[in-house]
Amino acid sequence: MSATLAQIWRHPIKGIGAEALEHIDLTAGLPLPLDRSWAVLETGGDPSEGWRNCRNFLRGAKGPSLMAVTSRMVGDEIELSHPDRPVLKISLDEGAAQDLFDWLAPIYPETRPQAVSLVKSPEIGMADAPFASVSVLNLSSLRALSQKAGVELDPRRFRGNLWLDGLAPWEEFDLIGKTLTIGAAQLEIIEPITRCRATEANPETGARDVNTLKLLQDGWDHTDFGVYAKVTRGGEISCGAAVSVT
Q1: DSSP of 110-125, one letter per residue?
Q2: pTM for the whole structure
Q3: Please, are residues 32 and 86 in contact by the beta-carbon 8 Å criterion?
Q4: How far apart are CA 1 and CA 202, in angstroms?
Q5: Is 180 left (phi over 0), alpha (psi -120 to 50) or beta?
Q6: Which partner from 101, 190, 214, 218 sits 20 to 30 angstroms from 238, CA to CA?
Q7: Cα dist from 47 to 9, 37, 97, 168, whole Å
Q8: What is the rounded distance in angstroms from the CA atom of residue 56 to the CA atom of residue 196?
Q9: Which residue intervals of 28-182 are DSSP H helices?
Q10: What CA–CA distance (Å, rounded) separates 115 from 222?
């Protein structure tokens, strides 16, 4: 296998904003730094501590316009932008929660339970997997899905952390149980990622415009896209780095 790390993304607030990175330091047993480190709990959601299921939070499957939010960490603050909203720059703490909720309200359906609190994620993060995960995706699979869709699909639809280039389409599923080495870091591939309706929304507009789940089901008899991994050895990873498998 000859592959490279093409893209690195993180999502500081679960379901709300994607940030591109050129490099990052990984730590064994932890998610990508600042990925899903906060989440917006909806009214009626589970208020307990620790990891919780995604159904408790605001997310793109419920409000597709959230998929058009981009984010950028600036020191201890986060800068959020959206095509239909002014730029918002706030600190990530509970004291800034109301400013965030006011900013989100016009782009989130009134018919959905609304934001009630900004919660800090546990050490393992708040990804959809109940362990400290890093998601690994395959650009060749994205191209195959794009070809079936008849339109080029933006990687941001899938809110992945690490995008690899150089694999065959769907080869990422063959990596389950194996270990990737990227720079000084190593990641064990654990399981496939089953997708939801968030992927149907265009990250440029926030509108649902491609039935990704139907395309996956019709073309490949599943709705999986990408795989979850655990960091087993820490170290810096950078875009353009070679990826090897053991």
Answers
A1: TTSPPEEEEEE--TT-
A2: 0.96
A3: no
A4: 32
A5: beta
A6: 190
A7: 28, 16, 15, 42
A8: 15
A9: 97-104, 139-149
A10: 32
Amino acid 138 reads: N
CA distances in angstroms from 121 to 136, 147, 180, 230, listed in the order given: 21, 37, 26, 17
Tokens of 223: 């709705």
Is pLDDT at 60 greater than 90 in this prediction? yes
At 163-218, the pLDDT tens digits run 999 999 999 999 999 999 999 999 999 999 999 999 999 999 999 999 999 999 99
Six token digits for residue 10: 């993180």
Closest CA relative to residue 64, chosen from 82, 80, 78, 90: 82
Q: What are phi and psi of 173, to 5 degrees?
A: -70, -25
User: What length is written for the chain?
Assistant: 246
Q: What is the pairing mode between strands 162-165 and 134-138?
A: parallel
Number of neighbours of residue 4 by Cβ within 10 angstroms: 16
Residue with tokens 């080495």: 181
DSSP 57: B
219 sits in which H/E element: helix 212-220
Going through 22-76 in order, the beta strands assigned E by DSSP cover 23-26, 38-42, 70-74
- Give the tokens for residue 203: 């990250």
Q: Where are the alpha helices (DSSP H) in 32-107?
A: 97-104
- Give the rounded distance of the alpha carbon of 105 from its chain centre: 21
Longest pairwise C-alpha distance within the chain: 49
